[in-house]
Amino acid sequence: MGLEKLHPFDSGKWGKVINFLKEANLVTDDSIVRAQEAREDDLLVVHTRQYLNRLKKHILESFEEWSFVVATITEIPPVLFLPNFLVQRKVLRPLRIQTGGTIMAGKLAIERGWAINIGGGFHHCSGDRGGGFCAYADITLTIKFLFERMEGVSRATIIDLDAHQGNGHERDFMDDKRVYIMDVYNRYIYPGDGFAKRAISRKVELEWGTEDAEYLQKVKAHVEAALDEVKSDIIIYNAGTDILYGDPLGGLAISPQGIIERDEIVFRAAWKHQIPILMVTSGGYMKRTARIIADSILNLYHVGLIDTDLAIEEAGST
């Protein structure tokens, strides 16, 4: 409805990634696993009912509350004045579909060794609060679903390489020793959540303008060290592209090739340690990020780290 023009996020990013992969003949409609919308009972595995109620209108008097909450999370002030049915259909439902995609991809990763959700990675949302464009805690939900419903899954490692600190899943797993969190982020930008930092097992704080050589050296060293330190049953890889040079929100200076090499480093480490990996695409606020994500997935295929038995999730491509 034109709201995307008021927001730095490219709302067509996910669909563009799928189209690029189709053009390269890596995927077809038959080889894409379509995401299903996360239902309320799914969301209640992590989220409080009070939080979910604040995202929707039950009675007229709650108008100001629900509209304010969603407008604040999405950082689009005009959402404040939209009817609830439009907010649900155009804003929250696509996010619930992406959340369902991450949960589905977690199961596929365990079964097949890898999966990619073209979407998801809402790492600023925790059980009782949203923020930073993130309304549902898909990473937390996926890990909890795997712990509860997949036999043999009792430990998880989160490798969060988005430019921003992943304070949502950090708050959710603050006292859960089954979850190891590695977070590499620009120390000077949102959210600066000092409390959540206490949950990070391996913290790598970057300076403004960090470039490829330093970044890739740190990623490789710390990913290897993290996987050596704890033997997990699943890796959730939050592969934000807001580390790209020129990104208006990331503040780092990584090249497109640097992003492709970063993703290859993480997947190679997962294969070396024989740990299933789920990748979500998270942040990235430039029009060219869709092409880079697609190029990175194509590279993973060409170097043999993913195969043609595809477990790519299409989520949020509307």
From TrEMBL:
Catalytic activity: N(6)-acetyl-L-lysyl-[histone] + H2O = L-lysyl-[histone] + acetate
Places the protein is found: Nucleus
Histone deacetylase domain residues: 7-297
EC class of the enzyme, as a word: hydrolase
Gene Ontology, cellular component aspect: histone deacetylase complex
A molecular-function term among this protein's GO annotations: DNA-binding transcription factor binding
Family recorded in the similarity comment: Belongs to the histone deacetylase family.
Job of this protein: Responsible for the deacetylation of lysine residues on the N-terminal part of the core histones (H2A, H2B, H3 and H4). Histone deacetylation gives a tag for epigenetic repression and plays an important role in transcriptional regulation, cell cycle progression and developmental events. Histone deacetylases act via the formation of large multiprotein complexes.
Protein name: Histone deacetylase 11
Source organism of the structure: Anolis carolinensis (Green anole)
